[in-house]
Amino acid sequence: MDVPYAQVKSGIETFVPTGNRMTAEDHLGVTIINDAYNSNPVSAKGALDTVASMKVAGRKVVVFGDMLELGDKAEEYHAELGRKIAASKIDFLVLLGSFSIVVRDAAVKAGLDSANIHIASDHSAAVELLANYLQSGDLLLLKASRGIKLELVEQGLKATMGRRN
Questions:
Q1: I need a surface site. Which of 78, 118, 144, 149 has the fewest CB within 10 A?
Q2: 20-164 is classed in which CATH architecture?
Q3: How far apart are the C-alpha atoms of 116 and 145, rounded to whole Å?
Q4: What's the confidence (pLDDT) of residue 103?
Q5: What is the block-wise mean pLDDT of the chain (165 residues), using blocks of 10 residues?
Q6: Of 97, 34, 23, 33, nearest in space to 67 by CA
């Protein structure tokens, strides 16, 4: 396409994702990656691979909500994700949605300590868990299908952490 290498490189280096698509920001020392615009098995695994490859001063925390519209294989895909989460060596997992038990059980069977997995009954419960756990230096990934509305967790967490600090 005859686009100069320098122009392509500059475009990639200055790209800023929008709207819950792997957007990253620092909030009071916690790096929050919001990838909750959409979720499917491939994108969820990719987000976990990204987090696993990142160097952080603190801990790696994941909030995972259901992947929607997967049809008859939904339970199987959520179990696969639980195994992938365990392999990703995260420190703390908060689950939200109707497949939370499936993800938790698969993650535990794959070696993730059940003490580090929490099923939140709703967005507010997830915010409370995170606000009491997160510290400066930690990395937080929010990953779910759009219908789970994880932006409510991000908004609530920012408001809660702002009052706490």
A1: 149
A2: Alpha-Beta Complex (3.90)
A3: 23
A4: 97
A5: 78 58 74 85 91 93 92 95 94 96 97 96 95 94 90 90 62
A6: 97
